[in-house]
Design a protein that fits this description.
Blueprint lengths: L1 E6 L5 H10 L3 E6 L13 E4 L6 H17 L4 E4 L1 H9 L4 E16 L12 E12 L5 E6 L7 E4 L4 E4 L8 H15 L2
Parallel strand pairs: 1-2, 1-3, 3-4, 4-9
Antiparallel strand pairs: 5-6, 5-7, 7-8, 8-9
Helix pairs in contact: 2-3
């Protein structure tokens, strides 16, 4: 199994890479500015990482790889900035938090399927963002919090998931999210 990892210049790349390696998952890495237009035949999943950049500036670089993954039924996981990119791509609106959200916050799980399988009804997850994205049409809300309404979502009928929080910084349950996504990619 191999995942295409699009680095949106995340500060967590080394942790994400280590989590993939620990789960015996191969990956190829590309910077969002050099985002490929065609996904290789052997790619089973796509991860769009978090970013210090505004999602509106990332989207033009990533539109084609998202379209390609959807056409090929390749599962997608967007994390923080990647979550916002997916939301914008499918018609969600980018919003700005009153205050920067940074630290561990309680996330309420609405649906324990897919990437959130096996998680408790609520858990503490690490967040670091100033922007959020509304739920696009044709998406189901998977998790919410007092800080951000759309903490996690899934596209109806497709294996397209995204989360606002940072699973790579959130300990055991964050690691479970990566394991769940890898399993989803293995069933592609």
């Amino acid at each position: 199994m191999k995942i295409l990892l699009v680095d949106n210049e995340s500060n967590e790349m080394d942790i994400i890479e280590r989590l993939l390696k620990l789960n015996n998952c191969k990956f190829s890495l590309t910077n969002y500015k050099k985002c490929i237009k065609h996904i290789e035949k052997d790619v089973d999943g796509l991860i769009l990482t978090g970013s210090k950049h505004n999602a509106k500036s990332l989207l033009p670089h990533e539109e084609k790889v998202i379209i390609e993954a959807i056409k090929k039924n390749i599962p997608i996981l967007g994390i923080c900035g990647g979550h916002q990119v997916i939301g914008l791509f499918f018609g969600g609106k980018l919003g700005k938090q009153r205050n920067r959200v940074k630290g561990f916050f309680k996330i309420n799980i609405i649906s324990k399927k897919g990437i959130l399988k096996g998680l408790p009804n609520s858990t503490m997850m690490y967040e670091s963002h100033i922007h959020n994205v509304s739920l696009p049409k044709n998406f189901t809300l998977l998790a919410t919090s007092n800080k951000t309404k759309n903490e996690a979502m899934k596209m109806n009928g497709k294996q397209v998931y995204s989360i606002q929080f940072h699973p790579s910084m959130s300990g055991y349950y964050g690691e479970m999210i990566f394991k769940n996504f890898i399993k989803i990619c293995g069933k592609k």
